Amino acid sequence: MPVTVIVDAFWGDSGKGKACAHLATTLDASLAVRAGVGTNAGASFTLPDGTHVKQRQLPTAWVNPKTQLAVGPGVLVHPDTLLSEMERYGLQDRTTIDHRCGVITAEDIEADQQDQFLRDVVGTSGSGVGPARARYVNRTASQARDHASLAHLSTDVAVEANRRAAAGEEVLIEGAQGTQLSVSFSYEYPCTTVKNCTTAAAIDDVGLNWRHLSDVLLVVKAMPTRVGQGPLPHEMTHAEAEARGIAEYGVNTGRPRRKAHRIDDDLLAYAAMLNGPTKIALTFTDHYDPAMRGRTDPAHITPRVRDLITHVEEVTGAPVTMIDTGPLLSHIIDLDR
């Protein structure tokens, strides 16, 4: 049952894409499937040659040339974004999308950006996923198989993911956004996304039989961030983040990410309860302790980060097996290897 689901404990922007790219290589994944809402959240990391990767539609597992890529049936697709990412990274022969994926239109994007409530209260990214999701639920949206530009990529991703998992092949499911943004589980409604962002939601987005699931990697950002409206416990000012050299900006919108001094234990415990992690990826440890920058050897974990690891393991009940230490894809301490 070699399927790993990658989900975020907080509000997204935690490094799920980097974790997926790393696992695609170390596990030699056969298939990686994107779960989540659609193109409203981005993933980024930096390759060894300095190339900064930013993407919003496809799994980041393409860094392994043997890994096939797919978008699950529960995910919305924006044709231009999808085709652009395929061309940019040369993925035309490795990409499929489920023929049932709903399609985001220009009208959806305009409606999203012009809605004052979504813009001022919710803090929408303006990517059109809310209106598109509403149309899909109302059964008026088109699907990927209805579009000439997408029809040649369309297949039954649910069947393919279950087939590979049943055959013992490594499958990754890359979630999007974060647990605390889940529309049904967040304490912060209406400042949420339009779906849930948990393990169960990711499985549902792909159509995976739960019996194939082997691991849940919960990505925990050492200093959680949030883009848009809604509460952020232990928040620092943007001026302080800039002064400390740890300011961040959204991949999709470019908006400043609001940043917290530390992890909120109650929210972390809540995320662990909802997601059932078997492993933890602790990310952005170089922001938490600059002495961690670029380290790759477990012997070089600083005392401050060791204390944080112990605390996160106590709260979640799961071991920290991956530690992110900087922007490069190679800036990882993998305790599973």
Overview of the structural elements:
This protein is α/β, with parallel strands linked by helices and 337 residues long. It has one domain (3-99, 153-334): 3-Layer(aba) Sandwich (Adenylosuccinate Synthetase, Chain A, domain 1), CATH 3.40.440.10. Helices cover 31% and strands 17% of the residues. The protein has 12 helices and 14 strands. Strands 7-6-5-2-8-1-9-12-13-14 form a 10-stranded mixed sheet, with helices on both faces. Helix 2 (79-88) links the parallel strand 5 and strand 6. The radius of gyration is 19 Å and the shape is globular. The two termini are 19 Å apart. The mean pLDDT is 95.
Order of helices and strands: EHEEEEHEHHHHEHEHEEHEHEHHEE
CATH class: Alpha Beta
Shape: globular
CATH architecture descriptor name:
3-Layer(aba) Sandwich
Instruction: Supply the helix-strand structural class.
Output: alpha/beta
Strand order of the largest sheet: 7-6-5-2-8-1-9-12-13-14
Approximately how much helix is present in the residues?
A: 25-40%
